[in-house]
Amino acid sequence: MTELRALTPHSVIPAEQASRDRHQKRLLRTFLPELVQLERQLAEAPDFVSTQVAGRVVVGPMGLPIYRVDLGTPATDVPVVLIVGGVHGLERIGSQVVMAWLDSLLARLGWDQHLNALLEKVHITLLPIMNPGGMYLNQRSNPSGVDLMRNAPITAQDGSAFLLGGQQWSSRLPWYRGRPEQGMEVENQALEAVIQDLLPNRPFSLALDCHSGFGWQDQIWFPYAYRRRPMRRIDSVMALKLIWEQAYPNHNYRFEPQSAHYLTHGDLWDYFYKQVNRENSGVFLPLTLEMGSWRWIRKRPRQLFRLDGFFNPLVPHRHQRVLRSHLTWMDFLISAAASHQNWLPIGEQQSMLREAAIMHWYRDTR
């Protein structure tokens, strides 16, 4: 299972190699316990859970794997749900939420007939730790200093937020986009390869990317981030919002386009949304879960003195609350994808819901 091998010459004697392996394992337990936990999860998972390495990131002497986890039906004509965590290395809670949901799912498969029947209608793919190098180094960017969410080949149409919207001056400054001539970073290339392998010719697909660090409230963001005009399938986002609110009227999420807050260059999900929906006849909806970390800081202001305190709940009971609070939302997305034909708008419904979405989210930009 493990891919964490030192990049050393073959001439290294076994005792020295074993010593280095032990040292690397100690480093991982200290600086990247999420990867150790994920490998333990996958080692104990049933045989029908498929695991492969989608990419590998070199940090010092180590090659850190980007694990891809697949479960559900292998049929290529069923809906897909792609769940991603850890794009920003500082936002460990994103990976932890994905792994908590995977734990819940695997535990239920042994007795939940409804869940087993559901997985015969949908395919699920997870990339729980997209940026293992950044997480190991305890930094937002990847080991090259590039912000993966500013690294796609797409440019904001209007003025982007200063620095926050992505900059190309220096990797020493935050939100560095990288150099266009170098292409996307290895982590994003791995994600792109998964999407190209997974999504073509699907009737419906949905992605959820788990982040933290913005606002007082948990938010569900959707494209676009590069412009303020609505996306082509905005009617489908409104339909998803409505069935969620009908099923769970007491929820605490706020649905908004990211452009309602700021514009950015290089947004990954803008790029993949345009690519997938340009090439396919089906519907692809990428969503981002932005967990409101300001609440954790307000309740425990001394978190401001720790870098990880800006983005993660550090008090144990709050951490546990966050891990369980998003399970219902993620279960809902699986059920919604499997039953997409029952709620996706068609015909006149599309026009009606598109107009409702524009009035709800874009009336100030018309």
TrEMBL record:
Arranged from A to Z, the UniProt key words for this protein are:
Carboxypeptidase, Hydrolase, Metalloprotease, Protease, Zinc
What is the active site of this protein?
A: E290
Record has Ligase as a keyword: no
Protease listed as a keyword: yes
Q: Where is the Peptidase M14 domain?
A: 28-314
Q: Which GO terms describe its molecular function?
A: metallocarboxypeptidase activity; zinc ion binding
Any one Gene Ontology biological process term?
Answer: proteolysis
Q: Which cofactor does it need?
A: Zn(2+)
Q: SUPFAM superfamilies from the entry?
A: Zn-dependent exopeptidases
Q: Report the GO terms under cellular component.
A: extracellular space
| Family annotation (SMART domains) | Zn_pept (SM00631)
PANTHER family to which the protein is assigned, alphabetical? PROTEASE FAMILY M14 CARBOXYPEPTIDASE A,B (PTHR11705), SLL0236 PROTEIN (PTHR11705:SF143)
Similarity-based family:
Belongs to the peptidase M14 family.
What name appears for this protein in its UniProt entry?
A: Zinc carboxypeptidase
Instruction: Write down the species.
Output: Marinobacter nauticus (Marinobacter hydrocarbonoclasticus)
